[in-house]
């Protein structure tokens, strides 16, 4: 049964999907990681002998037993901000467990190895130790030392940097990513505050918006690429950050000054906060909504505006954005806006960002459109749903193939759009990731303007955009 034993020292870059030719092993690895993270979280809240902790450890143990059917040790490695199972990158988990990775790094852990004899007691002791503050660990002699004292022999930790590759990419990208995931944490926290009737940390929201305004000012292409990060399970949090990025990028094209961008950004970030008040069963329903459910769903803009109005320090125009983001350019959306002939400029900006991000994300009731398909929808509804001028500016900004789009070139190679060429919106710069035979390659950037000259007889360098999910491809690591 065990077909994985020989997979030792393969190249880091070599086909990670191929490696998991047995899909079950990947599933086990994912389950195991999920239960590891859940146990760690539970033990940070409850005492170790609490029923919840006992159940979490039990759950982990069952998953580890399942995993042991495949291999007799489990090696998790951290390279930069990414998680690897042995030599194989786990792109999805690198995103999902971003804060866990950061925490392990702060505890000086560069990798964790779990060995077959691992007992629940060893596991519990280990989790308690890594839930201890870094300073306290250092005072008590360091993690490795404490593990030895506690008799934890079936978990080995690697020193930080053990698995680091040579320095990766330019400096801007990783820290823009950090801003992105920090923003996701903040919006989660804000939603939680609304749910528990606490006052909103408006300052934190402002800090997130301020950081993104800076990013967009420095290098809007790099930040726009981040807006192609999506989460199926946690749609609204990731969606809010993407709408923030897209709105700021569009606003800065007009151009708006910094203060206006702050007001626009706050409204964009918080536009869907009213969804906290909508039952989960409606939000995640797979089939079409009944008319009663649809009426409830349509209350989220007004509910969001109510929540924001009650917070001191939120600008009235940010509140207005939450209220108007579904009202449409022609006022045929919801809620009905009777008193004026059009919605405010900032609401029109956020509306485009909102619809674009929603269309390009898989939802329980829809497949994701590719970015160029989504742009075609915006064009079709110019002048009715959307402000036509803003749609034009949006297309100028995104190009015909927006940053983050998976494309197939005329040469047969696959790549991800990396940067627009102002001179030719149909010929962006592309990061190649697969050769014409479909084999994974060391990513390298080609400028399609040059490629186009060479193969003009083909009629364009980009042949088509593709949906990464239908190909089982995860593009996040390439952004
Ligand atoms: Fe909404
Ligand atoms: Fe939305």
UniProtKB/TrEMBL annotation:
Gene3D superfamilies: Hypothetical protein af1432 (1.10.3210.10)
CDD domains tied to this protein: HDc
Record-annotated HD-GYP domain positions: 214-410
UniProt cross-references to Pfam families, sorted A to Z: HD_5 (PF13487)
InterPro entries: HD/PDEase_dom (IPR003607), HD_GYP_dom (IPR037522)
Superkingdom of this protein's organism: Bacteria
Protein name per Swiss-Prot or TrEMBL: HD-GYP domain-containing protein
């Amino acid at each position: 049964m065990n077909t994985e034993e020989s997979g030792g020292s393969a190249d880091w870059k070599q086909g990670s999907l191929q490696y998991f030719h047995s899909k079950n092993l990947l599933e086990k690895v994912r389950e195991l990681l999920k239960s590891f993270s859940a146990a760690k979280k539970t033990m940070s809240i409850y005492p170790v002998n609490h029923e919840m902790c006992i159940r979490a450890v039990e759950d982990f143990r069952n998953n580890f037993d399942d995993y042991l059917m495949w291999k007799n040790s489990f090696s998790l490695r951290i390279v930069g901000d990414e998680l690897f199972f042995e030599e194989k990158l786990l792109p999805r988990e690198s995103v999902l467990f971003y804060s866990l990775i950061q925490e392990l790094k702060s505890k000086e852990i560069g990798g964790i190895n779990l060995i077959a004899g691992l007992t629940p007691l060893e596991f519990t002791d280990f989790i308690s130790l890594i839930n201890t503050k870094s300073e306290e660990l250092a005072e008590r002699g360091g993690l490795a030392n404490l593990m030895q004292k506690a008799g934890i022999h079936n978990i080995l930790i690697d020193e930080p940097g053990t698995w680091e590759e040579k320095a990766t990419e330019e400096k801007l990208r990783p820290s823009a990513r950090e801003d992105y995931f920090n923003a996701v944490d903040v919006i989660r926290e804000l939603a939680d505050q609304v749910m528990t009737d606490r006052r909103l940390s408006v300052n934190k929201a402002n800090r997130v918006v301020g950081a993104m305004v800076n990013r967009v000012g420095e290098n809007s292409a790099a930040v726009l690429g981040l807006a192609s990060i999506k989460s199926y399970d946690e749609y609204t949090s990731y969606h809010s950050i993407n709408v923030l990025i897209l709105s700021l990028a569009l606003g800065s094209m007009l151009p708006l000054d910094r203060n206006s961008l702050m007001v626009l950004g706050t409204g964009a970030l918080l536009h869907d906060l009213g969804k906290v008040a909508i039952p989960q069963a409606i939000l995640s329903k797979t089939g079409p909504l009944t008319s009663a459910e649809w009426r409830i769903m349509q209350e989220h803009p007004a509910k969001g505006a109510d929540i924001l109005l009650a917070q001191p320090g939120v600008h009235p125009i940010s509140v207005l954005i939450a209220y108007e983001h579904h009202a449409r350019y022609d006022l045929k959306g919801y809620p009905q806006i009777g008193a004026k002939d059009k919605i405010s400029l900032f609401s029109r900006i956020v509306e485009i960002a909102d619809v674009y991000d929603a269309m390009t994300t898989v939802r329980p009731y829809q497949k994701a459109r590719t970015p160029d398909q989504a742009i075609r929808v915006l064009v079709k509804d110019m002048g009715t749903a959307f402000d036509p001028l803003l749609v034009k500016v949006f297309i100028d900004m995104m190009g015909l193939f927006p940053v983050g789009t998976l494309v197939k070139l005329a040469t047969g190679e696959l790549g991800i759009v990396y940067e627009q060429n102002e001179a030719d919106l149909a010929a962006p710069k592309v990061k190649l990731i697969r050769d014409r035979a479909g084999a994974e390659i060391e990513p390298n950037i080609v400028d399609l303007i040059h490629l186009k000259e060479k193969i003009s007889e083909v009629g364009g360098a980009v042949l088509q955009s593709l949906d990464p999910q239908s190909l089982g491809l995860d593009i996040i690591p390439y952004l």
